[in-house]
Amino acid sequence: xxxxxxxDTSTDPQVGYRPAGTLDAASALAPYAGHFGPxxxxxxxxxxxxxxxxxxxxxxxxxxAQRAVDALFHASDPDGTFADYPPELGTLTSAxxxxxxxxxxxxxxxxxxxxxxxxxxxxTLVWHNHFATAVSKSPxxxxxxxxxxxxxxxxxxxxxxxxxxxxxxxxxxxxxxRYNTKQHPNENYAREVMELxxxxxxxxxxxxxxxxxxxxxxxALKDGQPLFRPALHDDGPKTFLGRTGxxxxxxxxxxxVQQPIHQRFISRKLLEVFVYxxxxxxxxxxxxxxxxxxxYDLAKTVxxxxxxxxxxxxxxxRAEPKSPIEFAIGTLRTIGAxxxxxxxxxxxxxxxxxxxxxxxxxGWDGGPAWINTSTMLARFNFVNALIATNTTxxxxxxNVNPDLLVKTAGGFDAPRIVDELVTATLQDDVTGDVRxxxxxxxxxxxxxxxxxxxxxxxxxxxxxQEKIRGVVALTLNLPVNQLN
Amino acid sequence: xxxxxxxNRSLGVAVLGGTMPLAFANAALAQxxxxxxxxxxxxxVLVVIQLAGGNDxxxxxxxxxxxxxxxxxxxxxxxxxxxxxxxxxxxxxPALAGLDDLFKSGQVALIQGVGYPxxxxxxxxxxxxxxxxxxxxxxxxxxxxxxxxxxxxxGTKPPSPFETVALGDTLPAAxxxxxxxxxxxxxxxxxSYNTGxxxxxxxxxxxxxxxxxxxxxPYLAMIADAAREAYHGGDALRAKIAGYTAxxxxxxxxxxxxxxxxxxxxxxxxxxxIIFVSLGSFDTHAGQRAxxxxxxxxxxxxxxxxxxxxxAHGNAKRVxxxxxxxxxxxxxxxxxxxxxxxxxMPLFVVGGSxxxxxxxxxxxxxxxxxxxxxxxTDFRSVYATVLQAWLGRNPAxxxxxxxxxxxxx
Lengths: 484, 409
Fold this sequence. Notes:
The structure holds 2 protein chains of 2 kinds. Chain A has helices at residues 3-6, 25-28, 38-47, 54-60, 65-74, 97-114, 118-130, 140-153, 158-167, 169-174, 188-198, 206-215, 249-257, 260-274, 281-293, 298-306, 324-334, 344-351, 373-389, 414-426, 432-443, 447-450, 454-457, 464-476; strands at 219-222, 225-228, 238-240, 243-245. Chain A is mainly alpha-helical. In chain A, helix 9 (158-167) runs antiparallel to helix 13 (249-257). Chain A starts with a helix and ends in an 8-residue tail after the last helix. Chain B is α/β, with parallel strands linked by helices. The two termini of chain B are 34 Å apart.
């Protein structure tokens, strides 16, 4: 599984733009104009979406890097493809909290799987993790509205997004700002806005928290909708982040986004999402400059990142662990599934990422925290069940067709089938040892096969479907496929 | 985990790696320090029981002779005639008959009024405070996780991958560690590499993971390591605990069934020393009596079956179980016949080696802080006691600050 030695840079020179630790600051954020083959296309579709279907990857390789990003920004779904609000919520009672939660989770996961607007949906997940609100406290209906807010504004203007989040019902519940009044200030939202959403710990004072909380007073909830109550708002003068005035919530947001430390904070966050963890300071500065000059325009900022040389660098390529949602949705898209398995929310919880339910207001830790024995087992068994389930015509199972990944024209030529499979699913990022093990499985020449009935094990028409499903599962469960 | 710490770890794995799954290789044994030090027995087992949602303490251990209690809870207050009396002031909720039996046999230390200064009433934050033992500032790792990190420094590994386990689908914050991979086992069937009937596929997977190496990404070695342990883990666990027969009839609820699995792990040669179990839904804002009584029934009856089973296998004296909840609830019932988020609550420490009895005074119901009980014992004193007396670890290694230990063990 040694990707770095496997990658053949003589035939694919542009993966390998730079080794780690040798950032060329001048060209890092310049538009990438190099080779754009299956590896680059699949990388872009994984990072700026939930992974490409084999057809998506093939289509993108007909473009260049810049036109591929254009395509991501201009993608659209036919009208009526998706409901903006989970229809099941209308028929479930207030006591059916679990079913309502599941309905919203499945509604969202289905959108991730099927939407052509992959980048917009990826940003929805990014902001869900950033403004981490949980269904354990905020009701499912409000969570659905918040997710739709991220979908509509996630590539808009950050200042506008933050103003919308401040009024968002799920957030008003989650961080108690609905109880923040002139008479009884509640600092919870003001503190988290600065610590987690915009500035980071250490970049504001306790006085800023108190004064900011006063600016955020007056937002109540009425019938589940935000309502500004002037009588509950403190319109007196405040001194907040070095400025003094009769600030309200939007004034406080304006002051926050103008802080250079905020511009670096959000730039670092986006680089960690799209490129790699621990981005170099000069790279953060370059992105912060784009962000500030664009007036906090997220499409321009994200666009600059995913169009850049550094985005296609070795340090970025398959460098980070896939989150459980990226892994599950990516797997479903790879095998051509057209619907979400109904048990997926629970499976994702076992993998460590139940959608709508981040563990704390800090969101999911991510990175190495995704990886341990239990979560790996949950990932493996998800794939195994997905592939095996579809040997029966179960109504609940997604429509999976492993033949999308291997052409039957290959007949029973195991090496050829394995080549087709690892090309379609992993862009050939596997070692010769792995190929040999997969071939031995198909040919029935493994030690395990010898202990069983050889008639069942030799590759032939009677076990073709089962063998193909087996080798697809083995391939999707390779450690390299856990990398984004 | 910080990236730097992680890279160090993955380098360690790469050096130690080889083709055998590390945690299953006996070679790793030699490098580990003893689990416990000092007078603590290395076979001691700790079972941490979370009562999630904020368990109402006043209807758990009831101050039945206090008029203030009945005034504050005209509807949900428990009838003194039904209370399982501990003394002339307090008694157990009648749903806790199982725990009362254990108390009468001297196996329960009841610690009253457990809390901490400036209590937090948010579920998430208060849970994080209890699980990381850090009220003042956020901690990345849990209190058990930090214990494990001190116990296994410099890339050493536990002698058994099941030495510390969370029974449940997700890892609790208490067990999040920088260096030790704690498995979360929801059910035995799920903790297994399942490929249906295709044995060849399963064995090929084993060959792939055993042969997996680190590559370009710093994460690949870590993933390959976890993949190997995941692949082998379920079979290894089942092999270790096969042959154990429960010697008690456990109730059928999920919590009691997890205690049954806990007894099986303890009574087998799985090497299990720390177990986390969670019992949920104590957030009784409305219609409290029915819900809390049902849950306390699971707790008491489950623990009674657990200790009956442990005793039959000769394990009761080496197993210490302790409860916690993120907060207690307010003294006065609310308009929905429930209670809202409050402060301190009683905590139970159970086991054959426990010095049974009542520790500390019941919090006053008239000397309140903004309508809430004032705590008497800091929860970190209980942790410090468990760390020092049961796990043989200097509490200062794990918990910031100094907290007196209690004479409960």
